[in-house]
Amino acid sequence: MRRTALLTTVAALVAGALAWPTAAPAAPAAFAHPGVTVSQGQLDFARTKVNAGAQPWKGAFDQMLASKYADLNRTPKPRAVVECGSYSNPNYGCTDEREDAIAAYTDALAWYITRDDRYAKKAIQLMDAWSATLTDHTNSNAPLQTGWAGSSWPKAAEIIKYTYTGGWAGSGRFATMLRDVYLPEIINGSNSNGNWELSMMEAAVGISVFLEDKASYDKAMAKFRTRTAAYVYLASDGSVPKTVPSQNLDTTAKIVAYWQGQSTFVTGLTQETCRDLTHTGYGISAIAHIAETSRIQGQDLYGTDVGERLRQALGFQAKYELGTAVPSWLCGGSLKLGLGPVTEVGYNALHNRLGIAMTNTQTLTERNRPAGSNNLFVAWETLTHGDNPS
Q1: Residue 309 CB neighbours (<10 A)
Q2: pTM (predicted TM-score)
Q3: pLDDT tier at 23 (50, 70, 90 boundaries)?
Q4: DSSP output for 264-312
Q5: Burial of 86 (0-12, 13-18, 19+ CB in 10 A)
Q6: What are residue 236's phi and psi, to 5 degrees?
Q7: Does the pLDDT at position 22 exceed 60?
Q8: pLDDT score at 7
Q9: Does residue 13 carry a pLDDT above 50?
Q10: What is residue 232's three-state secondary structure?
Q11: Are the C-beta atoms of residues 347 and 314 closer than 8 Å to each other?
Q12: Residue 57: its pLDDT value, please?
C-alpha cells in the first residue's frame, strides 16, 4: 500500500510538473517600437496628462523629475567588470550600474514628456559610457545583476532610438553590449529563487525587442511561461505547485522546502511569499512587465494563465500588505511585508483594461501613488501606467 501510494504521488507530481503552457512561437512578425513595458501610446497619454496638470500623473512626473535619477549633472560610473556577490557583497559597480540604467530610463521619460533635449542627451551619455566600457559581470549575483540592469537599459534605449529626433550615433555599440555582455548571462535562465529567473527573462525579452532577435524572444518567453506557472500557485494546479523540470523538485518534501517551508498551498501564494514580500514583489513585477511587453508586441497574455496568476498574486499579497492578520497556517503566522511599487502595471491591465474587480490591489495601488522606484529595476509606473487606457 505504501509503495503504491508513493508511486501515485510521484506520478501526480511528474504530471503536474509537465503541465506547463506549450512553448509556441511568441515573437511578432515585426517588432513594435518603443515596445518594452511602455508603448508610444502610453507615453503620449502620460505626456498629455502631465502637460494638462492632471493627477496622479503630474504628481508622479514631479516626483520623478525631483529624484536623483533625473539629475542632469549625473556623472556615469561605468566599469569594465561589474562584480556582485550575494546581496551585492562585494559591490563593485553593482549599484552604479543599476542606478545609471534607471537614470537613463528616467531621462528618456523626462525627454519624451518635456521635449527638453538635455534629458535625451543625458540618457545617451549614460548608455554610451557603459557600452564603451562594460565587458562582463562576475561573482554569484552576476545573473541577477545582469537581469536587473538589463531590464532598465532597453526601456531607455527604445524611447531614445525610436522617438528622439536628435539621433543616437552610439546605438549600434549599445546593441552590441546588450547582445554580447547581457544576453548570454541571462538567456538560459536560473534555478535559484523564482524572482531571479523572472527578472532575467524580463531583461532577455526587453533586450530581444531592442535587438529584434526573434529566437531569443521566443526562448525567453517560453522560460517565462514555465517559471510563472511554477512561481504563483492556483488551486487548479493540483495539490502541489507546478515545478520547473530542471530543478528536479520531484517530491512533496522538496517542493515544500523550495516554497520556504510552506506546506499549505492556496491560490495567489507565491514561491517566495514566506521568504518576504519584497522579493515576491520582484517576481510579480517581472511577470507584469513581460506580460505588458508581450501585449505591446501583439500577443496578449493577460487572458491566459499568466494574467490569472498575476491577478491572484497581486490580490493575495496586497491583502496582507494592507494589514490583514496573517493566519497561523501561512508562513507560521508571520509575514515580512514590503511589496514595493510593483502593482500599477498589472492593476492597470487587469482592472482598467479587462474590467476585473481587484479591490485589495486597487486600494494598495491608490494608497501608494505616486509609485516611485525600488532602485533596482522598477521606476515611475504611476506616470507610465497609472489608469492608462492606451
Answers
A1: 23
A2: 0.94
A3: low
A4: ---TT-BTTTTT-HHHHHHHHHHHHHHHHHHHHTT---TTSHHHHHHHH
A5: exposed
A6: -70, -10
A7: no
A8: 33
A9: no
A10: strand
A11: yes
A12: 98
**Residue 379: helix, strand or coil by DSSP?**
strand
Question: Over the chain, what is the mean pLDDT?
Answer: 94
Coil vs helix vs strand at 70? helix
pLDDT for 24: 63
Residue 137 forms beta bridges with which residues?
82
> Cell numbers 530542471 correspond to what residue?
246
Edge-to-edge, what's the strand order for the sheet holding 91-92?
Answer: 91-92, 81-84, 136-138
Residue 107's DSSP bridge partners are none
Answer left, alpha or beta for residue 192, where phi above 0 means left and psi between -120 and 50 means alpha: beta
For residue range 223-266, list pLDDT tens digits in order. 999 999 999 999 999 999 999 999 999 999 999 999 999 999 99
CA–CA dist 60, 120 (Å, integer): 19
Amino acid at 17: A
- d(Cα 261, Cα 191) in Å, to the nearest integer? 18
Distance separating alpha carbons of residues 98 and 380, to the nearest angstrom: 15
A 10 A CB-CB count for 369 gives 21
Asked, as a colleague might, if the bond just before 370 is cis with ω within 30 of 0, I would say yes
**Quick one: DSSP state of residue 191?**
S
Q: What percent of the chain clears pLDDT 90, i.e. is strictly above it? A: 93
5-30 per-residue burial string, b: 16 or more CB within 10 A, e: under 16: eeeeeeeebeebbeebbeeeebbbee
Q: Residue 273: pLDDT band by 50, 70, 90 thresholds?
A: very high
* Contact indicator for 384, 341 with CB cutoff of 8 Å: no
Q: State the residue for C-alpha cell 546605438.
A: 171
Quickly tell me which residue has 508513493 as its cell: 6
Report residue 195 as a C-alpha cell. Answer: 524572482
> Averaged over 22-26, what is the pLDDT?
64
Closest CA to 361 of 273, 281, 265: 281
pLDDT at 26 (0 to 100): 86
- Nearest-10 crossing angle of helices 277-296, 194-211: 30
* Closest of 227, 380, 387 to residue 313, by C-alpha: 227
Higher pLDDT pick, 51 / 1 = 51
CA angle 7–260–255, rounded 5-degree value: 15
